[in-house]
Amino acid sequence: MTDQTYGHIEYMSEQSVSVPSNYRKRSTSKGIEMATIWEETKKQTSKMKGRPLKEKLAYIWEYYHIVILIAAGAIFILASLIKAFVTSKDYALSVVMINSVAGAFEGVTDEWTAELTDTLDFDEKKYEVYIDTSIMIGGPNVTASQEYASLQKFAALMSSKSMDIITADTPRFEQYAQNQYFIDLRNVFSQNELDEMSEYIYYTDAATYSDYGSDVDPSVDVNALQAAYVIDHRDPSSMKEPVPVGFFIPESSRLGTSGIYSHLPAEESFQGHTPEAVIGIAINSPRLDNAKTGVEFFLNTN
């Protein structure tokens, strides 16, 4: 191979490895900058050798407090998530009390929770009794935002099968009964048991389920339409298709004597009758045996 050829190769090699001068400057500058930071860090660290612990901690906080705070926040969030996951329990029984004033009676729900826990006899490390009295729907003292949040929460609990027992005043109970949110009591209680509690059984008329059908004119106020009916929910003979979906709360019962529904206005009328408190079982309850025991608990006397 001739010298000329070698010269060409040498020339091409020089061109192929050529680097723009501004890039070399930037790289060199960054290298110098990093080296300077590293040297300064080593210098500051070496100053701390032999210093008292208090000074070392003060130094670390001064130079690294932002990093420490971010790390501490991340650890706290992670720990909270882990704790919530590890300590979370499934429901042995879930009770939702709509439009009650249980919050005004200190300790009443805690007492019921403890008694139901003893009655149901489950593994308390895995399960718990849940009683929610926060849902407020309708009524003169319920704000629009409060009602909206309650409706969203109720829908979420229902769709996730997180409710077993529902208590409510008759206007709200009938609204959900007509939307088929409650199980037919004949699927839970024996006929003998229903006969013994016949005077307290709450019936809804399946013949009017269509009032809430998807084909109903959206301009029609269905709730107002239903409220205008005159119905005796204790008398199945007054209905075309009576379905037992709940129990009126006796005044002498555990729930009745608690007073959490004593605020219902006696001067108002719903479907021709004074509003009362009613208890029923959610149609998609995954814990029917415990739900039945819970209903009996609330209907019995103390």
Shape: elongated
First-residue to last-residue Cα separation = 111 Å
What is the CATH architecture assignment of the largest domain?
3-Layer(aba) Sandwich
Overall residue-averaged pLDDT value: 82
> How do the SSEs run, as a string of H and E?
HHHEHEHEHHEHEHEH
Beta content? 5-15%
Count of DSSP helices? Answer: 10
User: Which fold does the CATH topology of the largest domain refer to?
Assistant: D-Maltodextrin-Binding Protein, domain 2
Low-confidence spans: pLDDT under 50, at least 5 residues?
1-19, 23-27
Largest sheet: 6 strands, mixed
Topology:
Blueprint: H1 3-16, H2 21-48, H3 53-87, E1 90-97, H4 108-120, E2 127-132, H5 144-159, E3 165-169, H6 170-178, H7 191-196, E4 201-205, H8 222-227, E5 242-248, H9 254-258, E6 277-281, H10 288-299
Overview of the structural elements:
With 302 residues, this protein is of the alpha/beta class. Helices cover 48% and strands 12% of the residues. It is built from ten helices and six strands, in the order αααβαβαβααβαβαβα. Strands 2-1-3-6-5-4 form a six-stranded mixed β-sheet, sandwiched between helices. The longest helix is centred in the N-terminal third of the chain and has 35 residues, at 53-87.
